[in-house]
Amino acid sequence: MKLVLDIIFLIILGYLCFRFIQVLIKMKQEVIFPATNEQLISVRKHPEKTVDAPTYSKQKVGIIIYSIMLIFAVIVYFLGVYFEIFNLSLYIFLLLPFTYSFDILNLFAVTKDGILSRVRFISWDKIKSFDFIPIDINHKYYGFSNEANNGYELKIRTLGMSISCVITSEKMKEQLTKLLNEHIKTVNIGRNVD
């Protein structure tokens, strides 16, 4: 039983490390959107706070915290193996912080290879569809901020979980719609050829 739990834990930890390193590598690519300050101000992961620029200097705090969390999980796991501590609660204790860590990086950016959102990178071929949902009085984000009340929630559906962000201006909605349509159409054409 311990061997099975060790293998599952190491697979999950390896996946989290891979995903984080992938985001860090993709942050070096040229950002297509938001490329200007106007675009940056109109994109939000949560209605009350604009996203930070997709650069290491602006995401420094999140990168450091997530790195510390990963290093801490690895060190405690190996200490548990060394001292032969076998307890299911140890594994749960080590993975629990990662269930709430998706917002550590306040990040949403479109690159040539896909979309960076929080601690995830989604390549274009993984995106199934996207929708802009108007934020009206019945929307869950209504009332958080005046800018968001007149905006839209962009919901991007992937092969796994969906991602979302708030767009506060009609102009940015149109720019993002055009950009997403171009990239998703290109990927779908490539799929049909194969």
List the helices and strands and how they pair.
Blueprint: H1 2-26, E1 31-33, H2 37-41, E2 43-46, E3 49-50, H3 60-82, H4 88-99, E4 108-111, E5 114-117, E6 120-123, E7 127-134, H5 146-149, E8 152-158, E9 163-167, H6 170-193
Antiparallel strand pairs: 1-4, 2-3, 2-9, 4-5, 5-6, 7-8, 8-9
Helix pairs in contact: 1-3, 3-4
Structure write-up:
This protein has 194 residues and is an alpha+beta fold. It contains 6 helices and 9 strands. The strands form 2 sheets. A 5-stranded antiparallel sheet has the order 3-2-9-8-7. A 4-stranded antiparallel sheet has the order 1-4-5-6, with helices on one face. A hairpin with a 2-residue loop joins strand 4 (108-111) and strand 5 (114-117).
The pLDDT mean sits at 85
Number of helices: 6
- Output the strand order for the largest sheet: 3-2-9-8-7
Unreliable stretches (pLDDT < 50, length at least 5) are 188-194
Could you tell me the strand content as a percent range?
A: 15-25%
The amount of helix comes to 40-55%
**Major sheet description:** 5 strands, antiparallel
Name the helix and strand elements from N-terminus to C-terminus, one letter apiece: HEHEEHHEEEEHEEH
Number of strands: 9
| Cα end-to-end separation | 43 Å
**Rg from Cα:** 19 Å
Dominant shape: elongated
Helix/strand-derived category reads alpha+beta
